[in-house]
Amino acid sequence: MIKKVGHIGIFVKNIEETVEALSKFMDFDKPAIKESETMGMKASVVNLAGFELELLQDMDDEGHLANFVKEKGNMIHHFCLETDDIDADITKLKEKGIEMADQTPRIGIRGKRIAMTTPAALNGVTVELSEP
Length: 132
Hints:
There is one protein chain. By secondary structure, this protein is of the alpha+beta class. The protein is 23% helix and 37% strand. It has an 8-stranded mixed beta sheet with strand order 2-3-4-1-5-8-7-6. The chain is globular and about 45 Å long. The N and C termini lie close together (12 Å).
């Protein structure tokens, strides 16, 4: 069952610059930047009093994510809903006609099981389901 909003995922051109700017703007210690060679992404999670911003950067300047950011600029890509039963929630959403990009859960950048909807599922907004 879906429990709460987990985070907002933001695609960025330069994660180091974005973390630096956010830390100055919001006055917090800079979080670590994690690199995943297998996913080809860099990620950093900024915790704001229990609410998280997940910053994501493509490690390949010509990758899908990098091209997306070149076209549209830094932008919110998705919001995440935490669930205690991701398999059941995927099934429920599909039964309601919600189009899933991930038909079954996969391991995300943070090592948790996740599944994404297509942007069309919510009129252009992508939703991520994630285990806590």
